[in-house]
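[[Sequence with tokens]]
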Amino acid sequence: MGYQLKNEKLAVHIAGVGEQYRGARFDWSGFITEVTLLEGKHSFCVPESPVPGKGTGGAGLCSEFGIDKPPGFSETPVGGQFPKLGVGLLTRLTDCEYRFFEEYPVSPFEVEVEEASLNLVRFRVQPEDCRGYAVRQFKTVAIEGDRLTVRYELHNVGKEPIYTEEYCHNFFGIDHRPVGPEYILKFPFEPAPWADREETMAGLVFGAGEVRWSRTPDKPFYFRLPGFDGRRNPWMWELLHLPSGAGVRELSQFPVSSAAVWGEGHVISPEMFIEVNLAPGERKTWERVYHFFTNYSKIL
């Protein structure tokens, strides 16, 4: 069933914990599967893969902690467990390095819904100690006007420090229109993109703070950006669909440790990473704020 947030501007669907997603990668709480801008009935969220059963199960706005290496993984023996924040205790299957796409067995954390209304839902992920690693997590999803806010709070209640990163995999495809020349991805600065493999940037056109697509991609595209101080800009990125004038901006205000953009022919996913370093007893909070709009010329 999940949770439905709705006001005069937005309708947002949030999956029930473990209903939409039960994998080892994305945060099970606050898993946003759809955002609809009621003016024009524009939809924004799409699945990671349009083919059922393919991909790692992502959809809409879903966050991930520790894509490169979760806390405690290095010292976990084969057959032992390590914590994946927002998910649970995962079992290490081999002596290979951590791979985010691996289907590790999951013993999920207990998640409670503390508060729910038409404008807000708040989740609490209970800590479970794993060799001294333990984090209590709160996640609040709220709407006000045409803005959606996701607020995170982490409290290190264990004996070991927590060093990780968080980002939101924003799986966007406005009105399910295919990626191509109809879209523009904008940044409030001149991006300096790079990629491990140049072919992942094929078909992308960079210039004047914009990314455009010369054609609909037939393969995944991907590029990275250096970190930047998101507090110095009024917004971090903006995705615009030209024919409809509908778009979304991320208005978050925090230091971005690194950034990336991933996508395929049906999806564009800007990813802004934030570092999370918590000594025992410490807390950290941050917000991701999204502004959904139409009539683009009127908001300039």
Q: What stands out?
A: Helices lie at 296-299.
